[in-house]
Amino acid sequence: RSGEMAKLTQFIDNEVFQAYATYATIVLVKMMLMSPITAYFRMTRKAFANPEDTASFGKGDSAKKYLRTDPDVERVRRGHLNDLENIVPFLGIGLLYALSGPDLYTALLHFRIFVGARITHSFAYLIPLPQPSRGLSWAIGYAVTMSMAYKVLKTALYL
Amino acid sequence: RSGEMAKLTQFIDNEVFQAYATYATIVLVKMMLMSPITAYFRMTRKAFANPEDTASFGKGDSAKKYLRTDPDVERVRRGHLNDLENIVPFLGIGLLYALSGPDLYTALLHFRIFVGARITHSFAYLIPLPQPSRGLSWAIGYAVTMSMAYKVLKTALYL
Amino acid sequence: RSGEMAKLTQFIDNEVFQAYATYATIVLVKMMLMSPITAYFRMTRKAFANPEDTASFGKGDSAKKYLRTDPDVERVRRGHLNDLENIVPFLGIGLLYALSGPDLYTALLHFRIFVGARITHSFAYLIPLPQPSRGLSWAIGYAVTMSMAYKVLKTALYL
Q1: In a mutagenesis test of the B interface, which of A1, A2, A5, A112 is the best target, namely the one with the most B β-carbons within 10 Å?
Q2: Considering its fold, how many domains does chain A have in total?
Q3: pLDDT per residue over C133-142, tens digit each?
Q4: Nearest CB partner across the interface for C142, out of B26, B32, B55
Q5: Which stretches are transmembrane (chains A, B, C) (predicted)?
Q6: Which residues of chain C have pLDDT under 50?
Q7: Within a domain: A3
Q8: What is the pLDDT of residues B86-121, one digit of tens each?
Q9: Which of A98, A113, A88 has the alpha carbon at shortest distance from A31?
Q10: What's the domain range around B22?
Q11: A7 lies in a domain?
């Protein structure tokens, strides 16, 4: 058993894999922050989706009026969904890319640009910044993921 | 080739990795169950999103009235999306955590509490249970994932 | 370091893992294509979700009328969300399945059917094809993922 464990930890001793682990974790934690931000806007805007969430505001119509959508809440939710749509491909393709033997410098470049772009995207969505800030940061993250997908398929294509 | 295969299966022979494989699979299967539950409510409530799904109810206005939202359907869909938002970070961070060399007992504790919290969350959402059941089960899963993220970054930080 | 790197690339030298890498990347790239398709329909149908996206159409009411939902945009978005709900389980369970030592032929069968089913699902959703095209392609991908989940739990169950 200690031999097996050694093998698994050797895995994370590889620098490219460490870089993947670091940036994947950072961008996932960033995505997770969208949840408390949604909760913050739901509470300050008093805009909820479930009757049981408004029970503390009283019963009947006095609580029912808080079952509504709010532009600020919907904005955070769109940002969260956009994160899912883009970070899921990064997670999967990025892991395979890290295992495909890229050189450390190139791998770091991909991971850093992706994570920087997604953090920028969140600020552009939440503040919001005028376009094309959000569109551009989305496109950069998208292009980085496509570049990693190309490397994976070039290295490992087995149809 | 048999040597390579041996290496890959050795991977899943590690107990921490086995635990990750088990709990990740269970919580993903749990998430997948939200799809047939949505379909069940769509059919019993006759509330569909696509015109082609209501074709069996006849043509024109007689079918069109089933293109509507229903509170029970929307509730399951919110639960499903909440699963995606929380289980995706668990999948990615949990895998890296399993590779970061935690001891078996601590790893099992993390995986079990996360999966227990998410199963509770689904029941709390679908029944629904009064708050703070749903909020608390969400928060527990969230905290477990953050704890694993901390361990990953402590072990593998490479910026 | 070169020894570690060798170990990681040996990983992707395994044929089952190569097959997983190939099909996971293809189906993730397919999912990513839903984003530009959504953008295409948003622009041709002039239906946007954010005020900052309509700024180029002028100010005030002339731009505000483009903040609306459109059936074609919503259709692509539902297809995209369905992808997330189904491809995320495939990614996680498929990776563990690839590490659980399946024979190459069986693994290829699972990966090919899943990816074929999801590509069919997208066409069925976007054209749209009459039911049960979409329902059936969804069910096939679902069944393949469940079959892999069964193999993972049979191989690695550690509760």
Answers
A1: A5
A2: 1
A3: 999 999 999 9
A4: B32
A5: 20-41, 87-115
A6: 1-2
A7: no
A8: 999 999 999 999 999 999 999 999 999 999 999 999
A9: A88
A10: 14-154
A11: no
